[in-house]
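re: ur question from yesterday

yeah so i grabbed the chain u mentioned. its 147 aa long if i counted rite. heres the sequnce exactly as i have it in my notes:
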Amino acid sequence: MTTWQENIINDTEGISELLSATRTIAVLGIKTEDQASQPAFYVPRYLHAAGFVIIPVPVYYPAVTHILGEKVYRKLMEVPFELDLVNVFRRSHDVGAHVDDILAKKPKAVWLQLGIRDDSVAEKLAKAGIKVVQDRCLMVEHRFLGR
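ran it thru and got these structure tokens back, copy pasting raw so excuse formatting
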């Protein structure tokens, strides 16, 4: 029997297993090409170049319809297929506002980028069977593991 705590990933082996099983990444809070120097754009761009399917879910930029050549969705629930991972670029205190959307979509995993941590959100997601990584950069971890 798995406990919810086992869904909180904070070790290299767990991250390696997660990335091995990941192909489709929704990026919540992605920036546009106009903000190319910001992590919320260049991390997804790196992942896209590394072969992941990136699904843009920006919080702002209502006129934007495509980012990285991919169709923009306004909510995770609007994405018409299964998601392996939701990569979150939101301030820690803003993550909670997205919990219902994340839970309704039920991705396999949620990754809170470097500097982003909300233990109560992580617990809710983990108890729902969703794997969670907090306060780590997906690009850095991907490069470190040599994937």
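noticed a couple things. The radius of gyration is 14 Å. also The mean pLDDT is 96.
anyway ttyl
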